[in-house]
Input
Amino acid sequence: MSGKVKNFKELEGCVVIYTDNYLNDIEGVKLEDECDVFLNRGKKKIVIDFANTELVNSIGISILVGIMEKVKKRNGILFFSSLKKVNHDIFNMLGLTKHISIFQTEEEAIGKMLAHE
Amino acid sequence: MNDVAYGLERLLFNLDTLSELGEELTSPKDFNKIVKSSLYMIMGNFSAFKGAIFQFDHGKKTAKPIASKGIGDINDCVIKLEEETIKELVALKTPIDISSNKKATSFLGVGKTGLEKIKVRILAPLVVREDLLGLIAIGEKFSGEVYSKDDFRLLSVIAHHIAVSLHNQSLLRKLMGKYDENKKLYENLICIYYDTIHAFATAIDAKDAYTKGHSHRVSAYCAAIANEMKWSQDETEGIRIAGLLHDIGKIAIDKSIINKDRPLTNNEFVELNSHPVIGYEILSKVKFPWTGIPKMVRNHHERVDGRGYPDSLGSNEISLGSKIMTVADSFDAMTTDRPYRPSLTPDEVIMELKKNYNKQFDRDVLHNFFSIIRKEIVGENKPAIMPFLSSSFADELKTKVLNRTINLFSFEK
Output
């Protein structure tokens, strides 16, 4: 996650975090840290948008599972959006799609998130 | 996704993980980072949200976490393993499901409590050549699915790779330990070596009441000239050592001759003048890490006009090191009190050196020696010679050089 470019958008009611090109090494932990920051600030509705992400490997999955678990523990809501097919297939294969709502676009995810009580 | 497609997808994902794990384990990164990445790969591959890698300490018989995820701070979660448990883990070689395997529960003994605390589901021993190196402990899958036979097989392969890496890291650590130990020994030896040479120099000078510190000063002057003449650091160190030992042959000369305040008899002269040869014979038997030291010592009383001793060598036959030593030795003799005369004045010293230019002293060496004095006086060089001179001598020399009452380079005209 780049520190120079703003990689999140705070909306009233939810936060959208944009992932980098690759989510495939230990530096990706910064994404988990960033979610921690929002959760600690009481922001429990988070959308992670993967539009820029070409590849998610096992390390990336581990980081995302960590985020999913943390959001679940805080009774928050986590949506994924704009997943490339290859990444969607991996999530599906690992059985994660049963536990996370995935939307085609960021706007769709935000709409559903804001409508969620 | 049908079963075949799913199977293929899963196989490719597993292969990717294995390939990336291999790359990670052989990367030059910090070892803790490698272990952490490896743990994340395992957990991601099985979508587990709790996991840790423990390193086994043979001495303490404990497994200590070196990486963890999803468990919080588990640094104090040190798992004690009984001798029997260790044997069982080594014999296992494959991962076990500790939540369903009652046999596992029994042999883990007290270690089970620690693992239960962090909600471990699967335990994979890290074993290389019947040697337990650590443990991989992972919790439930996020999806809630059970671990399949294929998962166990894959974890077994991953565990083997990580075990080999831990083994290599342990070997490297031992090697580094030995390296540090040997480095310290080497540094101690170097200190002893230098201390011994300095002790010799002090012992040599102690024989002569008037030449206290002579060898140390000659050593410093030699190094300063060599440095000015752009000798390498190693060569400069060599002549510094040669300077310290240049009068070692005097150890064999009768003290009454060295300290005599009246003119020496012919026999006494012969005995005193034998010290370069005695020095050469003593030092020839020493294996120095620098070349030419015995020869420099033998020839430090040779003259470029061929009238020196012991071998009456011509200028071309005298090494540059010996020529440097001659200037350094003579300068110190002139600037210190002797039994038969007090120290010369700066005018007398410079005049004497110039008078013997191209006779006793080599032209280039003398030029460089004067150059150092000038540079030290005007502050161009870090003081290397001036600090050894008496303050009155140094002050007078400085004033006269700056006033141009003494012209250091006039002999060149």
Remarks:
- Chain B is about 55% helix and 10% strand.
